[in-house]
Design goal:
This protein is of the alpha+beta class. It has 10 helices and 9 strands. The protein is globular and about 80 Å long.
Length: 380
């Protein structure tokens, strides 16, 4: 078993680390001032070759693997910035379109997601459901050679940004009393497409998360991913990948929390002794480190299985079940080590802790993933 990184992976990690040092402070400053992403964010990622990571070069992608993708997610997660979300979304949506789309759809929609001229979106969640396809109320009605989409989608990241999204609606063209879900690629400039203002979040500072309102948004039938009725299967595969990417980002967040704690333990002196040499703090650092490495290895294993073409959906749920409370505890311990300073916004650990809290409710809830992982054991 090989635990070391390849030369290519090492080069990509170094490039990502340089990017984070050079670009993220500027991006974060804009987000602090405007409570939104910079308009040129996706072009910035494109210039750094951080979009289209697992998409073949013929569609404008980089053509690397998921292992390298999540290594970059970890580096961005170390910054504590919310700017990693659009990068993950553009990459994951482009990969999903490549996996399920027709050649026409791939040639039309993937290149703009790789060159940074389009912002990606995925939209399943609604006011009445976040995981149950039977509870969807948004509907796709047949209309000539296309469909008219109507309904409300909730908590949609980058929903107000120009570009394309995968929207999941119940398909009225399918037979049966219970309409199955179909996945449509939607141009967000379409007539009848509108958005609410941004939600104010506990963490994810400056992120673009809104409601999307669809009112007879016309989508050609060629924009269907997979086959009609395949929507929930497509969603499950996409969200399994998102869980691995999210976990890798949170490993970076946990690493930043540990780094900040080690630094503080060396600098903070009590009775002429740095607090890191006091047993209580030494033990906390050791526990944080051990937990962090376990999270990192689980995320890397899941990405490896994905690249090897092995089933990874259950693994992604197991990663979520373990890393969510573990990274949240690591960031909490970082706040505790800093004492009252840890509760101050002047110190990075306060932001890291708030950021870590999103993992339990975004990319499917922690509880849903416990059910997925547990039921998988019963089926063996």
């Amino acid at each position: 078993m090989e635990f070391g990184l390849s030369r290519v992976s090492e080069m990509m990690v170094k490039s990502a680390r340089d990017f984070c040092s050079r670009e993220v402070p500027r991006i974060d400053a804009h987000m602090m001032e405007h409570d939104d992403y910079p308009q040129d964010l996706m072009q910035t990622y494109a210039r750094a070759r951080m979009l289209g990571l697992v998409v073949p070069k013929e569609y404008g992608g980089v053509g690397t693997n998921n292992m390298n993708f999540i290594l970059l997610c970890e580096e961005l997660g170390r910054t504590g910035s919310t700017c990693f979300l659009p990068m993950m979304m553009n990459n994951s949506v482009a990969e999903t379109i490549h996996f399920f789309g027709s050649e026409e759809v791939k040639k039309k929609f993937i290149p703009p997601l790789c060159d940074g001229t389009a912002w990606a979106t995925t939209a399943f969640t609604e006011p009445g459901t976040g995981s149950d396809p039977r509870a969807l109320t948004s509907m796709a009605e047949p209309d000539g050679d296309g469909f008219l989409l109507s309904g409300t989608k909730r908590f949609i990241s980058m929903g107000s940004k120009p570009g394309y999204g995968i929207y999941y609606c119940r398909d009225a063209s399918l037979q049966g009393e219970k309409k199955d879900v179909t996945a449509f690629v939607v141009d967000k400039k379409s007539e009848g497409y509108s958005c609410s203002g941004h939600y104010k979040m506990m963490g994810l500072d400056g992120s673009d998360t809104c409601d999307v309102f669809l009112k007879n948004v016309r989508v050609p039938k060629e924009n269907i991913l997979g086959q009609p009725g395949d929507g929930f299967r497509i969603l499950l595969r996409w969200i399994a990948g998102e869980r691995i990417q999210q976990a890798a980002g949170m490993v970076g967040t946990g690493q930043a929390a540990l780094d900040e704690s080690v630094k503080y333990c060396k600098e903070r002196v009590v009775g002429k002794t740095p607090i890191g040499y006091m047993q209580g703090f030494t033990w906390m650092l050791a526990e944080m480190k051990a937990k962090l490495e376990a999270c990192r290895l689980m995320a890397l294993r899941a990405a490896w299985k994905w690249d090897e073409g092995q089933p990874f959906e259950t693994d992604s749920s197991e990663v979520k079940v373990f890393t969510t409370p573990t990274i949240q505890e690591i960031t909490r311990m970082a706040v505790q080590i800093h004492g009252s300073y840890g509760y101050s916004k002047e110190y990075k650990v306060e932001k890291l802790h708030r950021l870590a809290m999103h993992q339990g409710v975004v990319a499917s809830s922690l509880e849903i993933n416990k059910t997925i992982a547990g039921m998988a054991l019963l089926r063996t």
